[in-house]
Design brief:
Blueprint (H helix, E strand, L loop, with lengths): L16 E7 L4 E7 L6 H20 L5 H4 L5 H6 L11 H12 L3 E5 L2 E4 H17 L7 E5 L4 H12 L3 E4 L6 H11 L3 E4 L1 H4 L7 E4 H6 L18 E7 L7 E6 H16 L5 E4 L8 H11 L2 E4 L2 H5 L1 H10 L4 E4 L1 H9 L9 E4 L6 H8 L4 E6 L9 E5 L10 E2 L3 E6 L11 E8 L10 H7 E3 L9 E11 L5 E6 L3 E4 L2 E4 H8 L5 E9 L2 E8 L9 H10 L10 E4 L13 H7 L16 H14 L17 H15 L7 H4 L3 H9 L20 H9 L3
Parallel strand pairs: 3-12, 5-6, 5-7, 7-8, 11-12, 11-13, 13-14, 14-15, 26-27
Antiparallel strand pairs: 1-2, 3-4, 9-10, 15-16, 16-17, 18-19, 19-21, 20-21, 21-22, 23-24, 25-26
C-alpha cells in the first residue's frame, strides 16, 4: 500500500504566525500561516529562507552550538554605522591656535562685563602655560581645577593642555570629602583654585591660587610652549558616580575630544557667527561641548555666572540680552526656562541631552526655538555619541544615529546582535570610546570589552547599560536602564553609591534608595542602639550633604523596621515603594492657610511639589523642593503678584507662613540686601552660602 501526505491547512489559526512541520524522511514539508495584516509575503519568504539556511548548517555541522550558527543579519547595522569621516590628528589646543591666527581680533569669550579676543586668549594661555611649567607641571600630570565659571577657567584648562598635562574638573559646590577623594585618588600633582576655596580642600598636591597666577602673567613669555602632545594623550580625567560608594575617573584623550568636536561642528553644526551660552559646571562632561566647540569653530562663547545658571528668569534675560543663537541644556533646565515665563521665541539652536527628552516638552520647545536636537551619550564615550534633529511631526523621540566615526550596536546577553525591532543593550564603539577608568582595571575590563565586530581601529566596545532597539527608520530608540543607575537633572547617579554612603552614617544598619517620580527616596533600617527622634531624618540629611553632591541627597528618608522581600529572598523594591507613606511634616500638626497670601503660596507649592494639604509651617526643602522647583515657584508668584523675588528668598523664608509675610512687605523693601545682613568689612560669605545651599 502506498500513501501520500496532503496539506490540509485550517482556515483560521490561534496565533499570528504558525509553522507546521510534516512530511516524510524523503519529503520534509514546512507550512507557514500568518496574519497578513501584520506580515507581508516578502517578510515570510525571508524568514523561510533564513530557517532553511539554519537547518542546512545544523545538518552540516551538528557539533556547533546554535549561537555559532545563527547570525543576525547585520545589513541594517552596517548602514547605521557607516560613519567614517576624516578629522585632524592634532591635540585640541593646537587646533585652537589656528583659530586664534584666523580670527585674531574677533571676540572669543565673554563673562558678565569682561571679554577677551582670540588673540589675547591665545597669549594669556601661552603665558599661563609657561607659568605652570615653572611650577613643575609636566607632560602626563593630572592638575585639579576647582574654579567658578570665568574667563580664567577656560584659560587655565587650555594652559594645562599646552603643558601636556590633563585637567581634573572639580565643582567648588561639591562636598569637601568628595573633592578630596577625587584629588587624592587621581594623584593630582597640582591643584589650581581660588583663595576662598583653598581652605576647603585637604591635599598633598601643590596648591596654586588663581589670583596669584594671573597677577603676574606678564612675567612670562607669550610664545608657544614647546611641549609635544599627541592625540592619544589624556585631555581630562572626569569622575562620575560609582556603585561602590566612591566615584570613578574616566580618562578622555585628545583624540576622543577632537573627533567629538569635529562631528558636532558639522551636525548639529555651529557657525562662526554663532554665540553659544555656557551654563554647565565643569564637573559635568557636557561642559566640554560648551567651552570648546565655539572656540573650535571661531564662534563666540558667553559664560553665565552661577546665579544665572540656577535661575530661569535670569537666564531668559541673558539669552535675549546677548542674542544667544545656541545653547545646550538638560530637559530639566529647558523645562525650568518654560516655567520661568518663556513666551517669546528665540532664533536658537537648542541641544537637549543628559536625560530622556519627553515628547510633550519637545513640542513646547519647537514653538520657542529654530532647531531642536536630541543628543545622547555616556561620559565613557566622550560626551555625546548620537544626535537627532527633532521635527514638529515627530511622534517618537529617538536618539537618532551615531556621530562621526562612532558605531552603535544592540546586543543580547551573549554579545550577539539583536534583530531590528528587538530590545538589546546599547553598546558603543569608535573613536569616542575613552581610555577606561583610572586605576580600576577590574571595572574597565567589565564595561570596556573586546569588540566582536572589530574593524581596523575600533577594537573596544563600551557597554552603556542602556536598553534600546533599532527601528525600521534606521534610528535608535532608547528604553531606559538595565541596572539601578538613574539620572537626576542630567547627572548620572548610581543608587548603590548613595546606599553605600548612607550605610556609613551613625545609627543606620542598611538602606535602600529609589527614584519616586522626580525625587530620591531612601528607606532606612536603623541599628539596635538607635534612639529615634522627630528630626532624625534631618540629621541624616545634614550629614549626607557633607558627603555627597546636593543632587544625590535623598529628599525623603523613611525609617522602617525591615525591608519586604521577594520569594527568592531579595529586597522587594516595588512593594517597598508602593507601601511607603509620606509624612509631610514631622514637627507640626497640619495648619491650613489663614490669609489670602498664604493660600496663594500654598496653592503654588502644592502645584509645584505635587503634594496636597501642605501645612503653613512645613519646610519647602524638607518636602522635596530643590532649586529647579524653586524657580517655578518664584515664577508663578511673580506672575500672580507682579513681584520678582530672588531665588535665595526661599532659603530664609522656606515655609508658607514666612514666604507669605515676605510677600506682604512693601514692594520697595524687597531687595537682595533684605535677604541677609550686610557683613562688616564687605565680606560676602553669608550670601554665597545661601546661594550654594539652595541647590538641592
Amino acid at each position: 500500500m502506498t500513501f501520500k501526505l496532503k496539506a490540509n491547512p485550517r482556515t483560521y489559526e490561534a496565533f499570528e504566525i504558525f509553522l507546521n512541520a510534516s512530511g516524510s524522511e524523503d519529503d520534509f514539508v514546512l507550512e507557514w500561516q500568518y496574519n497578513a495584516s501584520l506580515f507581508t509575503g516578502a517578510t515570510i519568504k525571508k524568514m523561510m529562507n533564513s530557517l532553511e539556511d539554519i537547518i542546512e548548517k545544523i545538518v552540516e555541522n551538528p557539533e556547533n552550538s546554535i549561537s555559532d550558527i545563527i547570525k543576525t543579519d547585520d545589513t541594517d547595522y552596517k548602514k547605521l554605522n557607516a560613519t567614517v569621516s576624516s578629522y585632524s590628528d592634532l591635540p585640541l589646543h593646537e587646533l585652537l591656535i589656528k583659530q586664534a591666527q584666523k580670527f585674531h581680533n574677533k571676540k572669543a569669550l565673554k563673562f558678565t562685563d569682561t571679554e577677551i579676543s582670540y588673540r589675547d586668549l591665545e597669549l594669556q594661555v601661552n603665558q599661563l602655560a609657561h607659568s605652570l611649567k615653572s611650577k613643575g607641571i609636566a607632560k602626563g600630570d593630572f592638575v585639579g581645577v576647582c574654579l567658578p565659571r570665568s574667563i580664567e577657567l577656560v584659560v587655565t584648562l587650555l594652559a594645562i593642555m599646552k603643558c601636556g598635562a590633563a585637567y581634573l574638573p572639580l565643582d567648588p559646590n561639591y562636598p569637601n570629602d568628595r573633592l578630596n577623594f577625587m584629588i587624592n585618588d587621581s594623584e593630582a600633582k597640582v591643584l589650581i583654585t581660588t583663595q576662598a576655596f583653598s581652605s576647603k580642600l585637604e591635599t598633598t598636591a601643590l596648591t596654586l591660587l588663581i589670583e596669584d597666577l594671573f597677577s603676574n602673567l606678564n612675567e612670562f613669555s607669550e610664545d608657544l610652549l614647546n611641549v609635544e602632545v599627541n592625540q592619544n594623550d589624556i585631555a581630562y580625567l572626569l569622575y562620575t558616580s560609582g556603585s561602590t560608594g566612591k566615584p570613578k575617573g574616566v580618562q578622555v584623550s585628545h583624540k576622543n575630544l577632537v573627533n567629538f568636536l569635529s562631528s558636532m561642528a558639522k551636525e548639529p553644526g555651529i557657525k562662526e557667527s554663532d554665540r553659544l551660552l555656557s551654563i554647565t559646571t565643569i564637573s559635568f562632561d557636557i561642559a566640554g561641548l560648551e567651552l570648546f566647540l565655539p572656540l573650535f569653530k571661531g564662534a563666540e562663547l558667553i559664560i553665565s555666572d552661577d546665579d544665572t545658571a540656577k535661575d530661569g528668569r535670569l537666564m531668559l534675560d541673558l539669552l535675549k540680552k546677548e542674542n544667544i543663537t545656541m545653547m545646550q541644556a538638560t530637559p530639566t533646565t529647558w523645562q525650568m526656562l518654560l516655567d520661568s515665563g518663556w513666551e517669546t521665541a528665540f532664533p536658537l539652536k537648542a541641544l537637549c541631552g543628559g536625560e530622556s527628552l519627553p515628547l510633550a516638552l519637545a513640542k513646547k520647545l519647537l514653538n520657542k526655538v529654530d532647531e531642536l536636537w536630541n543628543v545622547y551619550g555616556p561620559t565613557e564615550t566622550t560626551i555625546w555619541s548620537a544626535v537627532k534633529q527633532i521635527k514638529a511631526d515627530d511622534d517618537l523621540i529617538t536618539i537618532g544615529k551615531p556621530i562621526a566615526n562612532t558605531q552603535l550596536y544592540l546586543l543580547n546577553d551573549q554579545n550577539m546582535l539583536v534583530s531590528p525591532g528587538a530590545i538589546g543593550e546599547l553598546c558603543i564603539a569608535g573613536d569616542g570610546v575613552s581610555m577606561g577608568y583610572w586605576k580600576r582595571s577590574d571595572l574597565t575590563a567589565e564595561k570596556f570589552i573586546p569588540n566582536p565586530f572589530e574593524t581596523t581601529s575600533n577594537k573596544i566596545l563600551y557597554r552603556t547599560g542602556d536598553l534600546g532597539k533599532l527601528l525600521h527608520t534606521g534610528e535608535i530608540l532608547c528604553l531606559g536602564r538595565i541596572d539601578d543607575q538613574v539620572k537626576i537633572r542630567g547627572h548620572r547617579i548610581e543608587l548603590g553609591e548613595i546606599e553605600e554612603v548612607m550605610n556609613t552614617l551613625e545609627d543606620i544598619e542598611s538602606s535602600v534608595v529609589m527614584m519616586d517620580g522626580e525625587q530620591l527616596k531612601a528607606f532606612v533600617v536603623a541599628n539596635e542602639s538607635f534612639n529615634p527622634s522627630e528630626n532624625s531624618d534631618q540629621k541624616w540629611k545634614a550629614n549626607l550633604k557633607g558627603l555627597l553632591p546636593s543632587h544625590m541627597v535623598p529628599q525623603i528618608i523613611i525609617l522602617i523596621d525591615e525591608f519586604p522581600t521577594t520569594l527568592n529572598g531579595k529586597i522587594d523594591r516595588k512593594t517597598l515603594l508602593k507601601n511607603s507613606t509620606r509624612s509631610l511634616d514631622n514637627s507640626h500638626q497640619h495648619t491650613a492657610p489663614r490669609t489670602i497670601v498664604e493660600q496663594l503660596v500654598a496653592d503654588i507649592w502644592e502645584d509645584c511639589l505635587k503634594i496636597k494639604n501642605i501645612s503653613i509651617y512645613s519646610n519647602f526643602f524638607e518636602l522635596g523642593g530643590h532649586s529647579l522647583i524653586a524657580v517655578r515657584v518664584m515664577s508663578l508668584l511673580e506672575k500672580e503678584t507682579g513681584k520678582r523675588l530672588p531665588l535665595a528668598a526661599l532659603m530664609t523664608h522656606s515655609t508658607i507662613e514666612k514666604l507669605a509675610l515676605y510677600l506682604d512687605m512693601d514692594q520697595n523693601s524687597i531687595t537682595w540686601n533684605s535677604l541677609v545682613p550686610i557683613q562688616p568689612k564687605g565680606k560676602k560669605n553669608h550670601c554665597t552660602w545661601c546661594m550654594e545651599q539652595i541647590i538641592m
